């Protein structure tokens, strides 16, 4: 087979791939499909499909910025993180969470607040340096699992930096932005190193007080 034919074949395969749809448009599409009587968390995850992990991580990271939520958020983050490591297609939560119903109007309000922010971010965050989807999913899951442990560190405001880092990782994952993902992973490494040093110094300080 000639190299020219190979090149045309690769180009044809690339052009046949579906175009990337921004997350803001995906969320807008949810409103058109939402039943009038209300939606469940399971329904949302089913409609979001491969975006569901990114959206869950983004929501949990936002909640993680709230004071006093660190242990709960850290625990909840381990669920999607472990499933991403296992390369599951969508996250699965206990039935009580999946069947939790809320009004469609609440979904509309949430989307109306979120979409304008996402659209501004999407002018900068866009598909670049694409990696195989399964590999990216496993890497993101592993990093989020390790960062989830930082939420259990009993140091004031220790939840802020890991929460922001997970938000950036989630946005990079949602928009298939390898550049932002690389920056976010470097930031995650810095967070873990700083946390390890801080915890070690705290332990040494306690030891010097009592021994």
UniProtKB/TrEMBL annotation:
Residues 1-20 are annotated as: Disordered. Pfam families: ExoD. InterPro entries: ExoD. Keywords: Membrane, Plasmid, Transmembrane, Transmembrane helix. This is Exopolysaccharide biosynthesis protein. It comes from Azospirillum humicireducens. The chain crosses the membrane at residues 53-79, 140-173, 179-200. PANTHER family: EXOPOLYSACCHARIDE SYNTHESIS PROTEIN (PTHR41795).
């Amino acid at each position: 087979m000639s190299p020219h034919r190979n090149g045309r074949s690769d180009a044809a395969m690339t052009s046949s791939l579906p175009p990337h749809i921004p997350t803001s448009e995906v969320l807008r599409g949810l409103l058109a499909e939402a039943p009038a009587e209300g939606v469940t968390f399971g329904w949302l995850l089913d409609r979001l499909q491969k975006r569901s992990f990114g959206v869950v991580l983004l929501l949990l990271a936002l909640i993680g910025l709230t004071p006093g939520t660190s242990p709960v958020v850290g625990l909840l983050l381990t669920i999607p993180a472990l499933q991403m490591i296992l390369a599951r297609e969508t996250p699965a939560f206990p039935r009580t969470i999946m069947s939790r119903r809320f009004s469609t109007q609440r979904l509309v309000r949430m989307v109306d607040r979120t979409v304008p922010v996402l659209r501004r971010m999407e002018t900068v965050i866009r598909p670049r340096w694409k990696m195989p989807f399964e590999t990216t999913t496993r890497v993101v899951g592993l990093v989020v699992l390790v960062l989830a442990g930082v939420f259990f560190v009993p140091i004031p405001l220790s939840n802020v930096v890991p929460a922001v880092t997970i938000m950036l990782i989630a946005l990079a994952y949602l928009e298939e932005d390898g550049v932002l993902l690389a920056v976010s992973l470097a930031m995650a490494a810095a967070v873990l190193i700083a946390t390890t040093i801080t915890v070690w110094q705290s332990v040494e300080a306690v030891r010097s007080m009592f021994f």
